[in-house]
């Protein structure tokens, strides 16, 4: 007898949730997974610049109520793909929180066509610009 299996979308979002457990800025743990053809191309989580101490070790670099020491999960996933020579054009990204405006711009310019997010995070501009750019935004905050 077959068992119930999670959908591909839930599977990749579950992996993004696990990736977020590696985050090193305790203000917001975020994970991201870039996928094409049901294959993981890259992952990222929010943390400090490579080879520098992490926020959860030395404290936060605060500006206007935000920690600016960290590189965000989506940016780290895109950087990891580039560093390893992995093409992400036409891929999807699963992220535990909707992208901030700077990360949205990186996602758009990287050629990612679909953004799955687990919770809304702060920036309404992404909805207007995603529509203008024909980037699909999928809210997965409510399990189906």
How is this fold's topology laid out?
Blueprint: H1 8-20, E1 31-36, E2 39-45, E3 47-48, H2 55-58, E4 62-63, E5 66-67, E6 70-71, H3 73-83, E7 92-95, H4 101-110, E8 114-117, H5 125-133, E9 136-139
Parallel strand pairs: 7-8, 8-9
Antiparallel strand pairs: 1-2, 1-7, 3-6, 4-5
Using DSSP, what is the number of strands?
A: 9
Q: How many angstroms does the end-to-end distance come to?
A: 23 Å
> What sort of overall outline do the alpha carbons produce when their principal axes are compared?
globular
Q: Helix count, per DSSP?
A: 5
Question: What is the helical fraction, as a range of percent?
Answer: 25-40%
Low-confidence stretches: none
Major beta sheet, specifics? 5 strands, mixed
Beta-strand share of residues: 15-25%
Following the backbone from N to C, one meets helices and strands in this order, namely HEEEHEEEHEHEHE
Radius of gyration: 15 Å
| Structural class by sheet pairing and helices | alpha/beta
As laid out across the biggest beta sheet, the strand order is 2-1-7-8-9
Please state the average pLDDT score.
93
Provide a descriptive summary of the structure in words.
With 144 residues, this protein is of the alpha/beta class. It is built from 5 helices and 9 strands. It has helices spanning 8-20, 55-58, 73-83, 101-110, 125-133, and strands at 31-36, 39-45, 47-48, 62-63, 66-67, 70-71, 92-95, 114-117, 136-139. The strands form 3 sheets. A 5-stranded mixed β-sheet has the order 2-1-7-8-9, with helices on both faces. Strands 3-6 form a two-stranded antiparallel sheet. The mean pLDDT is 93.
């Amino acid at each position: 007898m077959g068992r119930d299996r999670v959908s591909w979308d839930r599977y990749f979002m579950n992996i993004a949730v696990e990736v977020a457990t590696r985050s090193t800025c305790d203000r917001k743990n975020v994970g991201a997974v870039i996928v094409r053809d049901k294959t993981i191309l890259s992952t990222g989580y929010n943390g400090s610049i490579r080879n520098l101490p992490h926020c959860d070790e030395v404290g936060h670099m605060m500006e206007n109520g935000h920690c600016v020491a960290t590189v965000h999960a989506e940016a780290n996933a895109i950087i990891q793909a580039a560093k390893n020579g992995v093409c992400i054009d036409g891929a999807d990204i699963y992220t535990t929180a909707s992208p901030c405006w700077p990360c949205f711009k990186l996602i758009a310019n990287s050629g990612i066509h679909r953004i799955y997010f687990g919770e809304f995070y702060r920036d309404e501009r992404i909805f207007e610009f995603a529509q203008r750019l024909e980037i699909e935004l999928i809210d997965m905050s409510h399990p189906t």
